[in-house]
Write a structure and sequence with these properties.
Elements: E1 3-8, E2 23-24, E3 27-28, H1 29-39, E4 45-49, H2 53-61, H3 81-94, E5 101-104, H4 114-127, E6 131-137, E7 148-150, E8 156-158, E9 176-186, H5 187-192, E10 201-205, H6 217-231
Parallel strand pairs: 1-4, 1-5, 6-10
Antiparallel strand pairs: 2-3, 5-9, 6-9, 7-8
Amino acid sequence: MKVLGLIPARGGSKGIPGKNKKLLGGKPLLQFTIEAGLQSTKLDTLIFSSEDEELMSLARDLGASVPFTRPQQLAEDNSGSLGVVKHALQFMQSQGKHYDAVCLLQVTNPFRSAERIDDAITAFAKANTDSLVSVLKVPHEYNPHWVFEASENGVLKIATGETDIIKRRQDLPDAYIRDGAIYITKSDVLLEQNSLYGSSISYIESDPQWHVNIDTMEDWKIAEELVKKFQG
């Protein structure tokens, strides 16, 4: 399976100004993800997508390939990941380079390792699903079978649609949330179905002790504590 690794990063950030180049443990935030991508043995190509010249120059200095400047309309606050991934894939195809899948690696999850990327690609190839996402297990107290929704008249109902509550924690099925560290999607699903997920999604569990998805200064403070262990 030929996999394109894609690292997107915008110049603008409202929550943390200059986030993607901000130093974390003495390194620009984007460096953690670039290093992991370059060390992966399962990614055929690693490219960096940005509209920001300073970030593009920094990415090149760190060893990433920067084959294009991302269009500004794909670098706004409301720009979704799907358009960014499709643009990168279609550009590479226009250069005569074709891939079976794209592996999206977000800069805001700095502590995913090269080994975890490789594990995810191996699991994806074995599962033969449309996509794969990295996940974290939901604590039992937030399991959807124990979550309620309120109706318009103020009556609670179980979010899963069941009428009877599962009484014992041990009887709850495992539930997961996306942690944002790794997304892998087949190229034909991206281009033909216009979807980042398709109709079948496999998963790989991440280690919760290394999880942070940096969006706010509170998240950054968590990352500063984690980086001490990561680099130690």
